[in-house]
Design brief:
This protein is of the alpha/beta class. It has 10 helices and 12 strands. It folds into 2 domains: 156 residues, Response regulator (Rossmann fold, 3-Layer(aba) Sandwich); 154 residues, Response regulator (Rossmann fold, 3-Layer(aba) Sandwich), CATH 3.40.50.2300. A 6-stranded parallel β-sheet has the order 2-1-3-4-5-11, sandwiched between helices. Strands 7-6-8-9-10-12 form a 6-stranded mixed β-sheet, with helices on both faces. It is found in: Cell envelope. InterPro entries: Peripla_BP_I, SBP_2_dom. It comes from Actinacidiphila alni.
């Protein structure tokens, strides 16, 4: 349940009521946002239910404890909920945070709120998803999402082994840069453009499993001979697989995805997904908290883009494509 904040009466009373969603604990015995004289750090994720953002929050909490800073957390009600993120950002600025880490739900709509926060001296770091323009934040700690897409595109091209592709793309949603970058990377890696006739269907899924299933059902009605699916993430991929299996085509269609969550890597291990590109949300958040802590303690201000890494995970490697196996993926997954 999301709550609007109450005014801050004193530093000792500032607490989780300042956030809109799940509240992370500060270091030591301090509650979220209480901190006393500690540097305060804010974390705003897209949702508080997706395992990816749960892991991100864990990374932030661990780093906050080791850095001796106080952490406030909030999240959107759903993927795409900009309004809740704007309110959370305003609340955190009012509570006196030195910096905010944010995974934007809407890469463009969040920019005015970010500008207001930065104008008040708050360091704003985007995690995972860059705003548009990227220069609207002080720094970005993220996977190179285009590279992640390119890796699975290259893999899919090699794995098709010259077979004519009939591709369905399970995309994210309009206005979200991460979705665009992953899609564009896949197309580039496969060696085609969006206008190529091999792409026979494209649907938005919101990164949701149920919506992924519906999207794939629609695509199969339009083009029953689809033999390759690109999915924005593993929930969308698993939803697509459900639709494909229901049509009796589970062995005929290759699915590739991005994220590297434990459920997704297990799907690679059992053959449901041929390959996924694994990213590392815990590292993103931990590095972000450390950057805000440094800013609050010494005035050192981070800037620019920091690549937090990506690896292709598959148990069916292709010649010339660098990859790690599912054992590595499971050792480094989240969720």
């Amino acid at each position: 349940m999301f709550r609007r904040s109450r005014p801050v009466v004193a530093a000792g009373l500032a607490c989780c009521a300042l956030t809109l969603a799940a509240c992370g604990s500060g270091s030591g015995s301090s509650s979220s946002g209480s901190g006393g004289g500690k540097v305060k750090v804010g974390l705003i994720t897209k949702t508080d239910t997706n395992p990816y953002f749960v892991k991100m929050k864990q990374g932030a909490e661990q780093a906050a404890k080791s850095e001796g800073v106080s952490l406030m957390t909030a999240a959107g009600k759903f993927d795409g909920d900009n309004g809740s993120q704007v309110t959370a950002l305003e609340n955190m600025v009012a509570a006196g945070v030195k910096g905010v880490l944010i995974t934007p739900n809407d890469s463009k709509a969040i920019v005015p709120a970010i500008a207001k926060a930065r104008a008040k001296g708050v360091l704003v770091i985007a995690l995972d998803t860059p705003p548009e323009p990227q220069s609207s934040v002080d720094a970005l700690f993220a996977t190179d999402n285009e590279k992640a897409g390119e890796l699975i595109g290259q893999y899919a091209k090699a794995a098709m082994a010259g077979k004519k592709a009939k591709i369905a793309t399970m995309d994210l949603a309009p206005g979200v840069s991460v979705g665009v970058q992953r899609h564009d990377g896949f197309v580039k890696g496969f060696g085609i453009t969006d206008s190529d006739p091999s792409i026979v269907c494209s649907q938005d899924t919101g990164g949701d499993q149920a919506k992924g299933q519906t999207a794939m059902e629609n695509c199969l009605q339009k083009a029953p001979d689809i033999n390759l699916v690109y999915a924005i993430n593993e929930p969308a991929a698993l939803g697509a697989f459900t639709a494909i299996k229901a049509k009796g085509r589970a062995k005929d269609v290759m699915i590739v995805a991005i994220d590297g969550g434990c459920t997704g890597v297990k799907a690679v291990k059992d053959g449901t997904i041929a390959a996924t590109a694994q990213q590392y949300p815990l590292k993103m958040a931990a590095d972000g908290v450390k950057a805000v802590a440094a800013y609050g303690k010494s005035g050192t201000k981070t800037s620019g883009y920091t690549d937090t890494g990506v690896n292709l995970i598959t148990d069916k490697p292709q010649t010339g494509i660098d990859a790690k196996d599912s054992a590595f993926g499971l050792a480094n997954c989240w969720g």
